[in-house]
Structures are given as structure tokens and as C-alpha cells.
Specification:
Layout (H helix, E strand, L loop, with lengths): L1 E10 L2 E7 L15 E6 L5 H13 L17 E7 L5 E5 L9 E3 L3 H6 L4 H13 L7 E3 L21 E2 L10 H27 L4 H17 L3 H14 L4 E3 L16 E3 L4 E2 L6 H16 L5 E5 L7 H13 L5 E5 L3 H4 L7 E6 L5 E4 L20 H7 L9 H22 L6 H17 L4
Parallel strand pairs: 3-13, 3-14, 7-8, 7-12, 12-13
Antiparallel strand pairs: 1-2, 1-4, 4-5, 5-6, 9-10, 10-11, 14-15
Helix pairs in contact: 4-5, 6-7, 11-12
Length: 447
């Protein structure tokens, strides 16, 4: 399931807004829904609103932006969805209050040859075959993710119409993993206890001790290790940026050591959960749900994924999240130029206010929507260039930097006058040259 178009006739600040979310002409996937979309724009342009429209229309799920009482004025919105492994079936949903009657389905010869069908029959087939057997639920990560990880083992995730982390802690998903970790560690503990008993009762029987040790090593070699699996295939690649990793060896000092993922530094020092940085929690608690839930053929929504992440990690997470899923469509809302640089220009939806205060989409191409006609490409631009040309930041630095640039310009004018007057080697000229050089270096350190 992927969104190919959002059309809003009249809804709050949106008026006659039509968002084509398909690949442009000239692209190998031309006309197919985009695999990822990035909403950018000033606060108040409706980025989060657009994110939360998607579960409303795809799953009839009510979010903070769309409580149940809001449906009396949502009928000005329609969303086009594509289904099938190649997005071959298209459905337009124009009224979330209704079920099948207001769903317009484009004819598909393949499905109609298989069975003579009306639109209702097709949708019944779609619900039975696609939603229940092929796709997983929409996943929503809000901007204000709940990072609390206390009492993980006592929480139970409530699976509703979508996976909504605006209404539950992200850490609740850990329960999908904790049982398997606990069983693995308890079995390991039992084998270690067998070794201890063997040593205690037959300390001189080296063959028995060796046999017990071999049983442990053979078991560790052949048994699936959920901790190593999560470390190798999910967390360690990102935690390495913090000089951290998943702790794989446990000493079982207390009952609380069993069943939980531990983090350590590269010197094998365990980092207690209450000392994890916010960035570490962000990485762990956003990556694990995707790895454990294994979303497929569905939509994943991220509001402000850059929160608490240093820019070097922001560069990595978009592709990283995608690597944890199977044929999913991602929607991001961001204020970060670093996040935006992970997207092709046709994947950016920049929202702006027009003169009357309504929202329109700023396009980055001239003429036909063709891959060759785009004049802005965040992937090839510098961060400061993205800020100025895409995020419309007027200045290239702080007011203090502007003040210093003006000061440098004034010094250059004074120095030029001395040069023109033949006083290049005079005391005032040398003093100005020194000031200019120092200020120039200070202003250009980043270059």
C-alpha cells in the first residue's frame, strides 16, 4: 500500500492543493508512487496534519490532529492509494466515514479476468488478500516519542488499527524480543550451572568437565542468539557512531540481568539505561520497532526524525530505516537540511503560504515534471545552500556574523584607500592588513 496523490479542496489552511506523489517522467518508476516523501516548510504549513491524514484515510484511524468529531468537515479531502507488489491496483478514498460505497477503483484486467467483479467485490478481495495476508499495519513515529524504558517487562503493546507510538511507549515493542532473549539466557545459565555442578562434584574428572564445556560451546554455536541477531543486523551499525555496542556477554548477577538488552562502550563498560543519552535512546527506540515488527508493503510515518540526533547520524538514518523494512513507503516531516539532503528533488514536498495564507507546493522543476528539468537537487547541495535555497533562510549566518562581515567590508574600504594613496607599507596600512587577515580567517574557518 502506497499513497500516490493527496488532494485537498478546502480544509483549514489547505485550499485547492493537489500533491502528486509519483515518480516524474524519465524515471524508471515513472508514474508509480514514491518510495519516500519528505515534507518541509514553515511551522504551521501543515506537515504533521498531512502525515496524520494518511492513517485516517488508509485505516480510518483517529489521531490527535483528527479526533472522531473532526470527520464532519474532512470530506473535502481525498487520497489515492496504490496496492499490489508493483502498485498495479489504484483506489481513491474520498470519504473516511463511508466504507466501500465511496471507494473508486480503477479497473484492472488481471483481477477481472480472475473473477468477474464489481468495485465492491474487488475491495473485498483487496481486504482479504492484501491487508490481512500481504501488508502489515501503518506505523507512526510522532515528534514527541516517549523514550521511557522503565518496567519494559511489565508492559504489553496494544495492537490497534495502526502501530501508533504517539499513544504508547516505543519500548513496549521490546516485549516482542524479551521472551526469546530470556529463554536464550535462561538456557545458557542452566548450562553454566551444569558446568559448576560438574566441577563441584567431580573436580578431578577432567573428561566430564570438558564434556560440559563442549555442550555449552556447541549450544552457543548452533542455537539462534536473539541478542547477537539484533546487535549485528540492527543496533550495532548505528551505535558504533556513539562508540557503543550491544553487550553480548552477561554475568547473571541478578534476576534483572535476564531478558534485557544492555549497552556497553568499546572498553566493555556497561552503560546503565538511565545514563543513555537522548540520542542513543532515539536510535535504539526507533530502530528496534522497525526491526522487530518487520513492516512490509505498508506506510511508515516519521515526524521530525532528526530530534536529538547529531548531524552525522542524520545523514545515515533515512537509508538505515529503509533497510529494516520490506517495500514500505516512508513519509517524513523535517526541519533539517541534513535530512532533506537524503532525498531526490521530486521526493521533497515543500509547503509555503501564499498571499491569502493558503498552502501551496513549491516545485523545483521548469516545464514538464521530468527528471531532467529539476533545477534544485538537495543531494548535490551544501548544507548552507539547502538552508538558503530550499529552506529559504535569508542570511548565511547569525546577526553577529553579519555584523562582522560589515566590519570586514569597512576595513577593506579603508585599506584600499591607503593602497590607492601609495601608503601600502605605512603603519596604519599594516595594522589594517593584520585586522583584515585575522577577521577573514575567523569568518572563513568553516570553509
Amino acid at each position: 500500500m502506497k499513497v500516490s496523490r493527496i488532494t485537498i479542496k478546502d480544509f483549514h489552511q489547505f485550499k485547492d492543493l493537489d500533491l502528486d506523489l509519483t515518480y516524474p517522467a524519465g524515471h524508471p518508476k515513472a508514474g508509480k508512487p514514491l518510495d519516500k516523501v519528505c515534507f518541509i516548510g514553515q511551522s504551521g504549513t501543515g506537515k504533521t496534519t498531512l502525515l496524520e491524514m494518511i492513517p485516517l484515510f488508509t485505516s480510518r484511524y483517529h489521531t490527535k490532529s483528527f479526533p472522531e468529531e473532526s470527520l464532519d468537515y474532512i470530506n473535502q479531502v481525498s487520497i489515492n492509494l496504490s496496492y499490489g507488489h508493483e502498485a498495479e491496483y489504484n483506489v481513491k478514498i474520498s470519504d473516511v466515514e463511508q466504507d466501500i460505497r465511496f471507494w473508486e477503483v480503477n479497473d484492472s484486467e488481471a483481477i477481472y479476468q480472475k473473477r468477474t467483479a464489481t468495485n465492491q467485490d474487488f475491495l473485498a478481495y483487496y481486504k482479504e488478500e492484501w491487508v490481512k495476508k500481504v501488508a502489515s499495519k501503518v506505523v507512526y513515529f510522532p515528534a514527541n516519542l516517549n523514550f521511557e524504558i522503565d518496567d519494559i517487562g511489565f508492559q504489553h503493546y496494544n495492537y490497534g488499527k495502526i502501530v501508533d507510538f504517539s499513544k504508547s511507549k516505543v519500548s513496549t515493542v521490546w516485549n516482542l524480543l524479551l521472551d526469546s532473549i530470556q529463554k536464550y539466557q535462561e538456557h545458557e545459565l542452566q548450562l553454566r550451572q551444569d558446568i559448576s555442578r560438574t566441577v563441584e562434584h567431580a573436580s578431578t574428572d577432567l573428561d566430564s568437565i570438558k564434556s560440559a564445556l563442549n555442550r555449552l560451546e556447541e549450544w552457543k554455536k548452533n542455537e539462534f542468539n536473539p541478542i547477537a541477531d539484533v546487535a549485528d543486523n540492527c543496533l550495532d551499525p548505528l551505535l558504533a557512531n556513539f562508540k557503543l555496542r550491544v553487550k553480548r556477554e552477561f554475568h547473571f548477577n541478578t534476576r534483572g540481568d535476564i531478558g534485557f538488552i544492555k549497552i556497553e562502550d568499546f572498553q566493555n563498560n556497561e552503560i546503565p539505561e538511565h545514563l543513555w543519552s537522548t540520542g542513543t535512546k532515539q536510535v535504539v527506540l526507533s530502530a528496534l520497532p522497525l526491526y522487530l515488527l518487520k513492516p512490509k508493503n505498508t506506510i511508515i510515518l516519521f515526524d521530525e526524525p532528526e530530534r536529538s540526533l547529531y548531524p552525522d547520524l542524520q545523514r545515515l538514518i533515512i537509508n538505515y530505516y529503509e533497510s529494516l523494512t520490506n517495500n514500505c513507503q516512508f513519509f517524513y516531516s523535517t526541519h533539517s537540511p541534513v535530512i532533506a539532503s537524503s532525498f531526490d528533488p521530486w521526493e521533497i514536498v515543500e509547503l509555503k503560504f501564499n498571499e491569502p495564507g493558503h498552502i501551496y507546493r513549491e516545485v523545483y522543476y521548469d516545464g514538464e515534471n521530468h527528471v531532467d528539468n529539476y533545477h534544485l537537487n538537495p543531494k548535490t547541495m551544501r548544507w548552507d545552500d539547502i538552508l538558503q535555497r530550499i529552506f529559504d533562510l535569508e542570511n548565511d549566518g547569525s546577526d553577529f556574523r553579519k555584523q562582522k562581515l560589515d566590519e570586514l567590508a569597512t576595513l577593506n574600504v579603508k585599506f584600499r584607500k591607503l593602497l590607492d594613496g601609495g601608503e601600502a607599507e605605512s603603519g596604519p596600512a599594516k595594522a589594517l592588513r593584520s585586522q583584515i587577515q585575522k577577521l577573514s580567517e575567523e569568518l572563513s574557518k568553516w570553509d
